[in-house]
Amino acid sequence: MDFDIKDIGLAEIGKKRILWADKDMPVLRKIRDRFEKEKPLDSIKMSCCLHVTAETANLVRTLKAGGADVVLCASNPLSTQDDVAASLVKDFEIPVFAIKGEDNESYYKHIKSAIEHSPNITMDDGADLVSEILKNYPELHGQILGSMEETTTGVIRLKAMEKDGVLKFPVIAVNDVQTKFMFDNRYGTGQSTLDGIIRATDVLLAGKVFVVAGYGWCGRGLAERARGMGANVIVTEVNPIRALEAAMDGFRVMKMIDAVKEADIVCTVTGDIHVLRREHFEVMKDGCYICNSGHFDVEIDIPALESLATEINKNVRNFVDEYVLKDGRKLYLLAEGRLVNLGAAEGHPANVMDMSFATQALASEYVLKNKGKLDKKVYVLPKEIEDDIAFTKLETMGITIDELTEEQKEYLSSWEIGT
Q1: Which CATH number fits domain 8-180+347-396: 1.20.1250.20, 3.40.50.1480, 3.20.20.70, 3.30.1490.270?
Q2: Residue 216 annotated as binding?
Q3: Which of 159, 225, 265, 394 would staple 190 via disulfide (CB 3.0–4.6 Å)?
Q4: Pfam families, per this entry (predicted)?
Q5: What is the pLDDT of residues 215-233, one digit of tens each?
Q6: Annotation-wise, does 356 bind a ligand?
Q7: CA dist., res. 32 & res. 60, Å (int)
Q8: Is 29 left (phi over 0), alpha (psi -120 to 50) or beta?
Q9: pTM for this structure?
Q10: For residue range 249-273, what is the model confidence (pLDDT) as tens digits?
């Protein structure tokens, strides 16, 4: 079995982490039990480009249980848990190509290794895998039945591909499924981003001015949790509806150029490029922490920050780089501007990833069941699959809900009964 990981000797630690996460992923376990019996992915070759974490390990275990021949590579150079990668290779015989902190050349070499698996189905977190296949592997386009996309940034890229007519196979936007974005993005990103910031800096959030760039589902979760820990939260936005929502949720809303003058901490969660730029660095307070929880490391204009610095001190703490500016101010960049929740922490808690990865597994099955019926477009899963995941999650939490009576169903489907 071919693989490329840091150290196979880390497997014992990694297995403990995988099994610890598994106990908090009851929906995915149920799917894995069914997949083990039914083998819905039998003989299908799958290449997955995802964050290599304990939660992801339980997803690829589920795919393998369903009969898939699966390989895994990292979707971000800093997001790999090396012990988990080792355990997947040694204990579960799943090839992994990922090393935490790998350089750009190694990152794309590992993506190439996953592509050379010659997949029928791909699974992505950021669309790097699909982009490489579309640009450089035309011989694979016809054999790929479909792909799944896990994150907002990836969906944005894939919809642009669809618009430009370059998408060559159907894609399921797992990120746009309610059981993913309403929970994973809000509760997962909200908690894990603060976890990464605190681990990296040991900062006390209470009383700090905390700027959140973007008020999508990730930004909402982050703003809510930062406020819950006593921070004075400012939101910046370009969307008037989201800005209005943030204001009505009780947050201060202002332009970034004004917000950074007050900020002790700034975190970007937009999915766009250069949200923090030269003009912002020039007016930031001394000691400001700068970080990103969007998928790619482009939200912070790091070259501009480097050009302003007279001195750069790497790793003044783990995952903290110090930039000394000409006037003596010091700005601190966390996790190299990459995903701070995975670069400096462990990513989302297993309990919330349970729904996201259950959705990924069922999306794979859906693509196979609908082989030849889907166009070269970006799709969202049918509502009945979302509902099934939600009902299963409620069941595992010991929660029951009401059902509509026949009278209520009739009323909701009729226009004849009025005031």
Answers
A1: 3.40.50.1480
A2: yes
A3: 225
A4: AdoHcyase (PF05221), AdoHcyase_NAD (PF00670)
A5: 999 999 999 999 999 999 9
A6: no
A7: 10
A8: alpha
A9: 0.93
A10: 999 999 999 999 999 999 999 999 9
